[in-house]
């Protein structure tokens, strides 16, 4: 890999042990993906929840602090694993909270902004067309690449941290023009109507594309998705397919026409109502009992919070209901009375976490939750590995089901 | 009779072990009970199987960024595969392998690695040179 004089100095340890680790990490990863050099990035975003990191990751972050680590560019964080204002009632232990506190302290010492959100493209600083960034969270990356036209690979926590410390990332994958051209072309024959429909469409496209290195282009859409709809679509696609980028012909910035991304040269594959129904059929059905209803993955925007509050007003839930939103949206939602409305129905709104990365197995066992209902196509894909049986329905049906204690 | 398989340059040290193979994909978050060291996602073809000390051979890596930290955490407790071989890795798993110093290779020139290697085969993985040797191949 070709390194500048400054990068060579970092690798030699002349700029401290933390930057040396970071550059060495980038050379190893860049080597596996044949990166020619490093590219400067404007922001980094790191997933670093205690369940994923464990004690070993906590020790690692503290060791970085001891080595003098300090971020060189604006660096923000993905949702945390423990809402420190509400963890005992969830069945999370003091040990989990202690590990969480250690990680927050270490990140703060490195100069990382603890934004704790997976919707930073809605609430913090959306990247712009052509902007090279190093983002963690697959939902953040796919949205930033596809909707904003920014350039990021999936950067796992260690690599996002390395990028934060050096201000660069290896130039491979989606930093290169040639990897942003479409490789599969899908024609949608059934128009999505609400959030979950967009999620299911994303899930199916992801499942069909099936690889990090596949780039779907979608045509046939008669409506432009809202930011929340594109968020659910992208998050589900990234989850089902490990897909980091998609185009929508005439909608997303790099595909003003199908030909812009080479889609005109690809065979068209149709996505019909039957295909979408088949995917949904794997996730629950009317009359199934439910233990917990989850609105999360991604965290809810203020617009989703308003829609949810309107549905919750005056209701009383039989099932447990957990809502996850960002620390940026939460105070607005509090001020506007939305949190009270949602919680008066019996739900709990968590701030700065997401359901699946907050020790989902342990909180499920502590609360006796196994049957989970959500409007997020992403979470129903993830959660079965944590011992849950997931079901999928629209936000409206999820709320009605929480009242009934079974899927309506 | 030994069989040599060529792949892309990988990450980590040269290791030897017994293969656990499936035509399926991999995410440390979605698919594993990392405390017990077994595949736990019911829909996974290796559900119930222990991955501890195995050379895992799978199609591709799936899902979220958490797997990068998780490989490091699994390695710290020594309940971890010895190596992971993919037809195609995604960036996350490669990054996690780099942090954990876990051996990982992908992009095999002779075809689908999940058919070239069988469960129970003894294999040597040499990531620096991009060679996987199947000893009983």
Strand order of the biggest β-sheet of chain A: 12-11-10-13-14
In order across it, which strands form the biggest sheet of chain B?
1-9-8-2-5-6-7
Number of strands of chain A: 14
In one word, what is the shape of chain B?
globular
Separation, N- and C-terminal Cα atoms of chain B: 6 Å
CATH homologous superfamily grouping of chain B: Phosphohistidine domain
Structural class of chain B: alpha/beta
Biggest interface, chains and residue tallies: A-B, 48 and 43 residues
CATH level-two architecture of chain B = 3-Layer(bba) Sandwich
> How large is the share of residues in beta strands of chain A?
5-15%
Terminal-residue CA separation of chain A: 57 Å
Number of strands of chain B: 9
Report the mean per-residue pLDDT of chain A as an integer: 97
Largest sheet of chain A: 5 strands, parallel
- CATH topology heading of the largest domain in chain A: Aconitase, domain 3
Annotation field: number of helices of chain B: 4
- Which residues of chain A form runs of ≥5 with pLDDT under 50? none
Any overview of this molecule?
- The complex is a heterodimer of chains A (408) and B (137).
- Helix content of chain A is 41%, strand content 14%.
- Chain A has 408 residues and is of the alpha/beta class.
- Chain A has 3 domains: 5-177, Aconitase, domain 3 (2-Layer Sandwich); 181-281, no CATH class; 292-404, Aconitase, domain 3.
- In chain A, the strands form 4 sheets. In chain A, strands 12-11-10-13-14 form a 5-stranded parallel β-sheet. A 4-stranded parallel β-sheet of chain A has the order 8-7-6-9. A 3-stranded parallel β-sheet of chain A has the order 3-2-4.
- In chain A, β6, α8 and β7 form a beta-alpha-beta unit.
- The model of chain A has no long low-confidence stretch (mean pLDDT 97).
- Chain B is α/β, with parallel strands linked by helices and 137 residues long.
- Chain B has one domain: 3-Layer(bba) Sandwich (Glucose Oxidase, domain 1), CATH 3.50.30.
- In chain B, α2 runs parallel beside α3.
- Chain B has helices spanning 28-31, 66-76, 91-100, 113-116, and strands at residues 3-6, 15-21, 32-33, 38-39, 55-60, 83-88, 103-105, 122-126, 131-134.
- Chain B has 4 helices and 9 strands.
- In chain B, the strands form 2 sheets. Chain B has a 7-stranded mixed β-sheet.
- Chains A and B meet through α2, α3, α7 and α9 of A and α1, β3, α2 and α3 of B.
């Amino acid at each position: 890999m070709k390194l500048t004089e400054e990068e060579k100095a970092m690798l030699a340890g002349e700029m401290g042990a933390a930057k040396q680790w970071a550059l060495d990490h980038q050379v190893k990863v860049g080597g596996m993906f044949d990166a020619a050099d490093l590219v400067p990035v404007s922001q980094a975003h790191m997933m670093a929840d205690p369940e994923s990191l464990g004690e070993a990751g906590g020790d690692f972050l503290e060791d970085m602090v001891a080595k003098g680590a300090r971020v060189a560019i604006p660096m923000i964080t993905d949702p945390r694993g423990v809402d420190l204002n509400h963890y005992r009632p969830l069945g999370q232990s003091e040990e989990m909270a202690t590990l969480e506190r250690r990680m927050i302290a270490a990140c703060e010492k490195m100069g990382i902004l603890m934004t704790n959100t997976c919707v930073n493209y809605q609430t913090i600083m959306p990247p712009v067309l052509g902007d090279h960034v190093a983002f963690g969270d697959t939902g953040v990356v796919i949205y930033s690449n596809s909707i904003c036209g920014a350039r990021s690979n999936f950067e796992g926590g260690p690599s996002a941290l390395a990028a934060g410390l050096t201000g660069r990332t290896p130039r491979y994958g989606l930093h290169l023009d040639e990897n942003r051209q479409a490789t599969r072309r899908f024609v949608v024959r059934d128009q999505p109507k609400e959030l979950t429909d967009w999620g299911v469409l994303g899930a199916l496209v992801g499942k069909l594309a099936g690889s990090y290195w596949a780039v779907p282009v979608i045509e046939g859409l008669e409506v432009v998705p809202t930011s929340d709809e594109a968020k659910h679509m992208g998050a589900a696609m990234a989850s089902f397919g490990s897909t980091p980028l998609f185009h929508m012909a005439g909608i997303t910035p790099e595909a003003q026409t199908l030909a812009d991304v080479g889609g005109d040269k690809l065979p068209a594959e149709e996505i019909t109502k039957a295909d979408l129904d088949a995917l949904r059929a794997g996730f629950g059905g009317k009359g199934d009992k439910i233990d917990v209803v989850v609105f999360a993955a991604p965290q809810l925007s203020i617009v989703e919070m308003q829609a949810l509050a309107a549905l919750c007003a005056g209701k009383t839930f039989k099932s447990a209901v957990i809502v996850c939103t960002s620390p940026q949206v939460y105070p607005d939602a509090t001020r506007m009375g939305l949190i009270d409305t949602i919680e008066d129905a019996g739900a709990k709104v968590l701030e700065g976490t997401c359901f699946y990365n907050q020790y989902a197995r342990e909180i499920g066992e502590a609360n006796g939750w196994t049957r989970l209902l959500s409007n997020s196509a992403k979470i129903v894909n993830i959660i079965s590995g944590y011992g849950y049986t997931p079901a999928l329905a629209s936000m409206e049906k999820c709320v009605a089901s929480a009242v009934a204690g079974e899927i309506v | 009779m030994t069989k040599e398989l060529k792949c892309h340059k990988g990450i980590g040290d040269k290791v030897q072990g017994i293969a656990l193979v499936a035509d399926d994909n991999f995410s440390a978050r979605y698919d594993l009970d990392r405390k017990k060291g077994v595949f736990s996602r019911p829909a996974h073809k290796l559900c119930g199987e222990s991955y501890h000390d195995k050379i895992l051979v799978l199609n591709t890596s799936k899902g979220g960024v958490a797997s990068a930290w998780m490989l490091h955490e699994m390695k710290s407790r020594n309940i971890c595969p010895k190596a992971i071989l993919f037809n195609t890795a995604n960036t996350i798993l490669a990054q996690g392998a780099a942090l954990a110093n876990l051996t990982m290779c992908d992009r095999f020139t002779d075809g689908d690695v999940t058919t070239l290697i069988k469960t129970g085969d003894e294999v040597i993985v040499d990531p620096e040179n991009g060679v996987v040797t199947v000893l009983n191949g």
